Amino acid sequence: MKQSVVLITGASRGIGEALALALLSRGDCVVGLSRGVSEETIAHERFMALNVDLSSLAEVEMAMHRLFETLTPDGLDSITLINNAAALAPLAPIEACAANDIASHLHVSTAAPTVLTSLFLHKTAEWPVPRTVAIMTSGFAGIPAASMSLYCASKAFLNMFVRCVREEQRLSPRPARVIAIDPGMAETDMQVFARSRQDESFPMGALLRQAHDAGQVLAPRDVAARIVRLLDEREADEQPVLRV
């Protein structure tokens, strides 16, 4: 029986963990790329944890090389890369952000998904199975927000990156499916941290608290279920950015 393999960054918590559990429950094999691992995912025999610090591009590259030494298209129904992990901090005016914090944010939120996508597409270029790259984006890609310049700019970068790679894949003899998915607001550690901020330099905190109080923040498992449906609905690919 053929199986699908799904690579997920940031699979140890939040939406990434919920996605991993949803995919495992339906029989997919999941590879989690993160620094930690959740007890629920590691309990599954079809889950493989790949310890990697996404702020280190050398680690990212090494991890992908190691992984694809063990993966072949034989017996596969499909293979998917979900670039889910992202950094939120630093949440501060840019002049208050330290150089190391800026570099770490950009490595995790832009450089790592770019490198992972590049390696994934290169290593599977000749595989005769459906290939998908999905990148988690955000509505903040189009909303300028004080103290969130790095987060907003990173998501805007990813949206344009997806558009460009889609154009490249149209020229490929074996085109991969490339999409961005906006999961909306989910009750994750990032969401809790952001709405806990109440200083004047971060006015978005008040709006996030209002959204939470109004019941507009969904549970990660509900968001994950919607993302899985989008991944399955290939006819929805007319737009580069899909929303749950």
UniProtKB/TrEMBL annotation:
It is found in: Cytoplasm. It holds the Pfam family adh_short. Its main location: cytoplasm. Signal peptide: none annotated. Belongs to the short-chain dehydrogenases/reductases (SDR) family. SUPFAM superfamilies: NAD(P)-binding Rossmann-fold domains (SSF51735). Residues 4-188 form the Ketoreductase domain. InterPro entries: Biopterin_syn/organic_redct (IPR051721), KR_dom (IPR057326), NAD(P)-bd_dom_sf (IPR036291), Sc_DH/Rdtase_CS (IPR020904), SDR_fam (IPR002347). This is SDR family NAD(P)-dependent oxidoreductase. Keywords: Cytoplasm, NADP, Oxidoreductase. The keyword Ion transport does not apply.
